[in-house]
Target: AraC family transcriptional regulator
Amino acid sequence: MKRFNNFHPFNVFSLELEIWEFELHQHNFYELIFIEKGKGIHLLNEISFKYKKGDVFLITPNDAHEFIIENKTIFTFIKFTELFFSNLLEINKLLISNNTFETILKQDHLNEGCAICDKTDKKHVFSLLKIIQHEFLNTSILSKEIIQKTFFAVMMLIARNKNSDFNSSIVLDKDTERLNSILSHIRTYVLDNEKMKLKNIATQFHLSPNYISIYIKKHTGISLQQYVIKMKLKLAEKLLEEKKLNINEIATKLGFNDSSHFNKLFKNHRGISPSAFSKGYISNS
Model:
């Protein structure tokens, strides 16, 4: 697979395309992609997401992606390195600690694909993008500082949207940062049986295997097992929409014992069967 390299710590540019010109690829950097116009499909780690004007995607160096453009699209890219962002967190350490870095940059591929779901936050982010673009292209006194502060605000809005799985009013203290990291780990590796073993999660986050489920339920209101099933069922929705796999294949891919067990859990989750969902029915629940 092709890998694109970037040696600048921070870069901003826009492309207007009718055809996506880049094959499936990875990067050596992080990338925010803003959809300013157009619509199509974003293929991200073998999962397809519909995109439209106003969407924002956060791509990590481990991600493989490409776009299928349906209507002429204006993409605006912000490319940045891990070092750039960790330095930015250090500058703003009175607001948020460096340990939150992983929480912000861990891509959650089990949501709708877009990094920001809240409509008001989307408007804010695109307004901030215009400031970043202007200062990047028209460098003047304090442009660097304005870019840093504005970009930091963009990343904090993304962090707020990523933390919607639990009480968003919780202050980002040390305990909450650990919870964020655990939930991000589960979302990222939910299909990796080895990394999802209870003892391995516990070792990763320096908790007792007997305590980690209690810890997660205390902060989220659901058990570790329930959270894992919730993430798998979100992924099941995407796989059903794609219609590339049948229900038995999806059940196997997601690690369910059999299709009947998967059917029962999915119906409890969405209020309709997987087959009905794949045909385009939407639950009222």
Remarks:
- The domain at 165-285 is CATH 1.10.10.60 (Arc Repressor Mutant, subunit A).
- The CA atoms of residues 191 and 253 lie 8 Å apart.
- The chain has eleven helices and seven strands.
- Strands lie at 2-4, 10-17, 25-27, 30-44, 47-52, 56-59, 65-80.
